[in-house]
Amino acid sequence: MKRFKNILFIIGVIAVIVMIFTFDVSFTQLWGYIQQAGYWLIAILALWGVLYLMNAWSWHVILRGSGPCPVSYLYLLRVTVSGFALNYTTPVGLLGGEPYKIIQLTPHVGVQRATSSVLLFAMMHVFAHFCFWTSAIIIYLLLAAFRLLPLNTAIAVVLAFSALFCALGIYLFIRGYRYGMALRTIRLLTRIPGIRGWARRFLTDHYDDLTKIDRQIAQLHSQSRPTFYLSLAIEYIGRVCQSFEIFFMLILFHSLPDNTLASLSMGFLQSFLILSFTSLFANILGFLPLQLGGREGGFALSVSALGMTSALGLFISIICRVRELFWAIIGLLLMRVKDRAPQTVNCKP
């Protein structure tokens, strides 16, 4: 386990180095963007500290919903930050952060419960994104109906494709919550060339464990509805709060007509839409380490669709990349913190 953690850490460090040397601007221009952001950059970094607090809270709620809570919230917060850092810096995101979370939680709750809680948290995080994207489509159509945003053929096609994608995703996740997803995922891997042999052996050796994990996933949805909806609400509100990151930059870039309530409200809705469609585009390209190119392209398309300048799109993408770099470094450093011996924390299921 320690060797695997070290491998993940080394991959993360290499990815961060690549990230530093692959900005779309020179270091002189990068420093200029950072100076232009000024104190707003500190606000953005602090905002993401709050978002990680919410992510850890969501995971903690899931863990408490499945039985006694043997780990502290602060421990889950540390593992959460490191897990997201690995998701940012490893190819196919979840292949880095989620195994690390399982490794860190296994000594405290056992491999089955660790796997089910991490899988449930990952499912909830992605499911909240689908809900977030769906609400963005509805908001865009409402604003377009009042002629506050453009709606041409190209945009209509993109919205229709996005709506179908979100509907399919929500349907699959609802089925996954009802019947579990671990066993189906491994069976799917048995059909993929290159790893089908390993997947078949894993399915044979761990069939009973996978069945128990699926049973725990289904129990959260069917028997612990308050836990399920509280975790989903925390994740969704976190996505909404993330819109403030872009909203701060719209204010900084003087992209709002004035400081009236109507102008600020419209600016926040635009930030909501920019974030949702950018994250949708970036997650489609999630197989790229650090989502290189996907995030920038998403910002460029989203900003231009809302009638804003390409310079603003570049500014937002660069500042977001700086924020990702900052928290990726923090997460990797937290991986080197020595773990304490497992300790039981008194809390109700």
Q: What can you see in these coordinates?
A:
The structure is a single chain. The chain is mainly alpha-helical and 349 residues long. The protein has one domain (2-335). It has 14 helices and no strands. The chain has helices at 2-20, 27-37, 39-65, 73-89, 94-109, 111-145, 153-179, 182-189, 196-205, 207-223, 225-252, 261-284, 294-305, 310-335. It starts with a helix and ends in a 14-residue tail after the last helix. The model is unreliable at 287-291 and 344-349 (pLDDT under 50).
Describe this structure in a few short sentences.
The chain contains 14 helices and no strands. With 349 residues, it is an all-alpha fold.
Q: In terms of quaternary structure, what is this? A: single chain
Q: What is the succession of H and E elements?
A: HHHHHHHHHHHHHH
Please give the share of residues in helix.
over 70%
The backbone outline, from C-alpha atoms, is: globular
Radius of gyration: 21 Å
